């Protein structure tokens, strides 16, 4: 087993990189480069409706333009065999069952998860799979989690412990369209890559207990988790939401050099007390998490620059 310090950056390949993507990639990259570890880029491209190979390859190029390099690049869609093997293991444990609840029906349960999604009440437990197993199932397939608290703590000390089965419900692990779900794929692929340290935005923190529960079912190792600040923007009503897709790299690179954007992001998140242009590798020597601001940051794109609001 590979015990080398290994991190990963796993953006969803649904569109171009935006400032939030670049900041998350930069922090994950710096965490490993500053500690002499490996860093893997994994393109999450399993969603057949939203992800294409063209988008995934464009994302790789955009991150390279920004100045990030990787010890390995993976496309999640190429790991179908390992995802299927994980489903087979869960089926052998008797943990899989079909669920015919629509999204509208799920909403009628009326209970929200910590990240705002609709919680599932596990009503389908005990429903058998088709005689030919999960591969023959035309409904979403869920995995029955252990009914216990998953004790997990963010490396910053934030308690992420949760009875995932009760709070969020048994997760969908295979979608109606046959695609493997994020929750299953992420734990399988992290283990396969030997990931020891996960650095990601705090919007994903509520999923951690569910992922740990799946790791335990599959007897996979649990990495350490660190969740960092998000870039946010004000909508038309003045409410802050995640700065997602407001401006992508194709538009950014028309107005800013990669070094100028890197310097601006480094300054905004607290890595530097100035916004002078720099490359990601220029930040390695002085990188420390103690310098990174803890609270989310409201920003806006002026058309020529990214500024704090």
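Sequence proposed for the structure above (309 residues):
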């Amino acid at each position: 087993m590979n015990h080398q310090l290994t991190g990963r950056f796993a953006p969803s390949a649904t569109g171009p990189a935006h400032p939030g993507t670049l900041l998350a990639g930069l922090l994950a990259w710096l965490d490993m480069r500053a500690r002499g570890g490996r860093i893997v880029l994994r393109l999450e491209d399993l969603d057949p409706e939203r992800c294409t190979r063209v988008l995934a390859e464009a994302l790789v190029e955009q991150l390279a333009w920004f100045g990030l390099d990787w010890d390995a690049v993976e496309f999640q869609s190429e790991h179908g065999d390992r995802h299927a093997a994980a489903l087979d293991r869960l089926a052998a444990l008797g943990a899989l069952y079909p669920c015919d609840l629509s999204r509208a029906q799920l909403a009628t349960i009326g209970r929200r998860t910590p990240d705002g999604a609709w919680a599932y009440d596990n009503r389908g437990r005990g429903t058998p799979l088709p005689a030919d197993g999960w591969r023959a199932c035309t409904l979403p397939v869920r995995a029955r989690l252990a009914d216990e608290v998953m004790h997990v703590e963010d490396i910053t000390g934030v308690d992420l412990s949760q009875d995932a089965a009760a709070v969020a419900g048994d997760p969908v692990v295979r979608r109606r369209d046959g695609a493997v779900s994020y929750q299953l794929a992420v734990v399988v692929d992290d283990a396969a890559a030997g990931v020891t340290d996960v650095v990601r935005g705090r919007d994903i923190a509520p999923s951690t207990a569910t992922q740990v529960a799946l790791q335990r079912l599959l007897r996979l190792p649990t990495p350490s988790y660190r969740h960092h600040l998000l870039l946010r923007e004000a909508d038309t009503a003045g409410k802050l939401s995640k700065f997602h897709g407001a401006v992508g790299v194709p538009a950014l690179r028309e107005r800013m050099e990669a070094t100028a954007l890197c310097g601006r992001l480094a300054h905004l998140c607290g890595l530097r007390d100035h916004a002078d242009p720099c490359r990601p590798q220029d930040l390695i020597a002085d990188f420390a998490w103690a310098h990174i601001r803890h609270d989310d940051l409201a920003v806006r794109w002026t058309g020529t620059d990214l500024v704090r609001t």
